[in-house]
Design goal:
Blueprint (H helix, E strand, L loop, with lengths): L2 H6 L1 H4 L5 H10 L1 E5 L3 H13 L3 E6 L16 H5 L4 H12 L4 E6 L6 H6 L4 E4 L4 H14 L3 E7 L2 E7 L7 H4 L12 H4 L3 H20 L7 E6 L4 E6 L15 H4 L5 E5 L4 E5 L8 H8 L4 E5 L2 E6 L2 E5 L5 E4 L4 H11 L3
Parallel strand pairs: 1-2, 1-4, 2-3, 4-5
Antiparallel strand pairs: 5-6, 6-7, 7-8, 9-10, 10-14, 11-12, 12-13, 13-14
Helix pairs in contact: 4-6, 4-11
Length: 341
């Protein structure tokens, strides 16, 4: 604990329940952040500035201008450079605190990647925007005994809850099933205030700090907020003995083993194609091939081409986001035609 280290975290260590021992625990912690968009960028900024020792970030997406209204880490230059969110986040976070190890992972969160991503993590924190990924994280949490912090936000409201396996409910005690498509609003249909993102992301980051430094002080209920009406409520949630995950020990999201997946990205007018695990793409070769069919943009992290009225963005792991359609069959055809099998 150098003099500079002491100076950086001095005001944090003055807080009751934290102190120098709390700062040591934080420096030794290894946290996994799933998603680094709106919530994730707020969470990451707080954790890195607070001095978490090692932060691993996974995110599948690249930056667009509409992200900048609520995704606090990023700049217009990041969008112009077509940077993946995880890469841009790591750059800004390292500039804010060079003592923290920030490990970016540009990739999709699926049953294959989540296990490797969580390896060596003390806990996970939710920066995602969809329930299928959260249910996957919950399956991993319950099966491996790994704590995690959930959060979600829409319009001017949001919610968060902290889960510690064996010490209360899990996410599926709260939400037994994924809401049917179209049954819940999204940020693309009803909007979201960046202030709501800031509050919920800050609450999630605070829960991470408590899990590391003072776990008995953690949030044990479902905390909901509404910034428009300024109502904050905490609802006690009991563990469900018949819960599919923590009750019956069924983990369908973690045990799914599709060889290839294709999903329509809600509100994005885009389809994501994820090839079978273990594949890779040589971006320079792909760029040279695609220059014959359309306008190509590229950097070390992706290749992007405009073709047939669509924009195809391909990542080194072979994953692609095809913008301009929400039809999965169209996405698969374009992927096969321009990227390959």
């Amino acid at each position: 604990m150098t003099e500079a280290w002491d100076s950086r975290y001095h005001r944090q260590m003055l807080v009751e329940g934290f102190g120098r021992e709390g700062q040591r625990r934080l420096a030794a912690a290894r946290v996994g952040l799933v998603g680094c968009g709106a919530l994730g960028s707020v969470i990451a900024g707080h954790l890195v500035r607070a001095g978490v020792g090692h932060l691993r970030i996974i995110d599948r997406d690249f930056l667009e201008f509409n992200n900048l209204q609520r995704q606090m880490l990023y700049t217009e230059a990041d969008v112009t450079d077509r940077l993946p969110k995880a890469v841009a986040a790591a750059r800004h976070l390292r500039a804010a605190n060079s003592e923290v190890t920030v490990e970016p992972v540009v990739g999709n969160v699926d049953p294959f990647s989540i296990v490797a991503f969580a390896e060596g993590r003390d806990l996970l924190v939710d920066g995602t925007d969809n329930f299928s990924t959260r249910f996957l994280v919950n399956d991993l949490s319950v099966s491996r005994g790994l704590p995690w912090v959930y959060g979600g936000v829409i319009m001017s409201s949001g919610m968060t809850m902290t889960f510690v396996p064996g010490e209360g409910p899990c996410l599926r005690c709260v939400f037994p099933e994924i809401p049917p498509p179209g049954s819940t609003p999204t940020c693309d249909t009803v909007g979201v205030l960046n202030t709501a993102v800031g509050v919920v992301g800050s609450l999630e980051a605070n829960e991470v700090l408590k899990l590391i430094v003072e776990p008995e002080a953690r949030n044990r209920g479902l905390l909901t907020i509404d910034l428009r009406s300024l109502v904050f409520e905490s609802v006690d949630i009991a563990r469900d003995p018949d819960c599919p995950a923590c009750g019956r020990r069924l983990f369908p999201f973690l045990e799914a083993r599709e060889e290839e997946t294709a999903v329509s990205l809600c509100g994005r007018d885009a389809v994501q194609i994820v090839p079978r695990p273990g594949g890779s793409v040589h971006l320079d070769q792909l760029r040279a091939r695609l220059e014959a069919v359309g306008e190509v943009r590229a950097n070390p992290y992706l290749v992007e081409v405009d073709v047939e009225g669509k924009t195809i963005t391909v990542f080194p792991d072979g994953r692609a986001i095809i913008k301009g359609t929400d039809d999965i069959s169209v996405g698969r055809v374009l992927y096969s035609r321009y990227v390959g099998q």
